[in-house]
């Protein structure tokens, strides 16, 4: 049996220990690259140690000429590790406004949801690491993200009915590469290399090709610094959400239809508090954050609308839904 790094195993054990209950089975999302394959290798060791089952999920996007080769390579890894593998081929709609990366992400998470529900699996492990977290924070900073966005990737997140665990957000990629190299030399299995990782047509490719070399030269600790910044933003986000939660309850919030009192909202001071509770409200409704221009428009209409909403009909569209006001209650309705 291959002996994995205790250092990498420790982070995974720590993540699993924080769950309400140790799951009987976990899945590892494996693309076939260095990071995810190493996570599968380490996870197999940890799963055996904890006496729980582990499976591999592989999503074949069909976007690369070698997509089927990558899939076969992941099947080979599963055979070496003696674990079950479940592959799902997906269609990526490239006509969506989200671009190839965003569209592929949507298709991938949909596939994870279907695979998980079919097998009764609640937790999926993802191999994002310190470098990925730093890149995420940098890109969101460049896009003007707010506090919630600057949190970056969370150690534990939920999408639909599935929980995603990222145990290596504090682990440098170099340590993962060393582990993978050791495994490859011993087992003669080698990870695939995704050419889009450093393709300047994609935002992360631009960061890796042009920004990272400069940052590494002049600010060698920037990845750890950005990761630490994300943790600070996580704490700030929790504090702001706690304030917004209390404010929402003071606004005669209805937990059934998620509506609130327009008059009570107007009583909040200062303006930043009114704006933040709107952001929190959108988040609670499972909607993406509106742009600043859209948020300003919603704020403006709520501010000047008659207290009972009779003088004109408010109807602002956002993320496939409408923000409406009727008889002094503000609510969201699907388009």
UniProtKB/TrEMBL annotation:
Q: What GO molecular functions are on record for this protein?
A: ATP binding; tRNA(Ile)-lysidine synthase activity
GO annotations of cellular component type:
cytoplasm
Compartments in which it is found: Cytoplasm
Q: Which Gene3D superfamilies match?
A: 1.20.59.20, HUPs
For this protein, the record's Pfam families field holds: ATP_bind_3, TilS
Residue span(s) of domain tRNA(Ile)-lysidine synthase substrate-binding = 270-331
EC numbers:
6.3.4.19
This protein's major location comes to cytoplasm
> What reaction gets catalysed by this protein?
cytidine(34) in tRNA(Ile2) + L-lysine + ATP = lysidine(34) in tRNA(Ile2) + AMP + diphosphate + H(+)
Write the record's keywords in alphabetical order, separated by commas.
ATP-binding, Cytoplasm, Ligase, Nucleotide-binding, tRNA processing
**Which residues participate in ATP binding?**
31-36
tRNA(Ile)-lysidine/2-thiocytidine synthase N-terminal domain: residues covered: 26-208
What's an example GO BP annotation here? tRNA modification
Please describe what this protein does. Ligates lysine onto the cytidine present at position 34 of the AUA codon-specific tRNA(Ile) that contains the anticodon CAU, in an ATP-dependent manner. Cytidine is converted to lysidine, thus changing the amino acid specificity of the tRNA from methionine to isoleucine.
The record's similarity note reads:
Belongs to the tRNA(Ile)-lysidine synthase family.
Q: What is known of its domains?
A: The N-terminal region contains the highly conserved SGGXDS motif, predicted to be a P-loop motif involved in ATP binding.
Matches recorded under HAMAP family: tRNA_Ile_lys_synt
Q: What is this protein called?
A: tRNA(Ile)-lysidine synthase
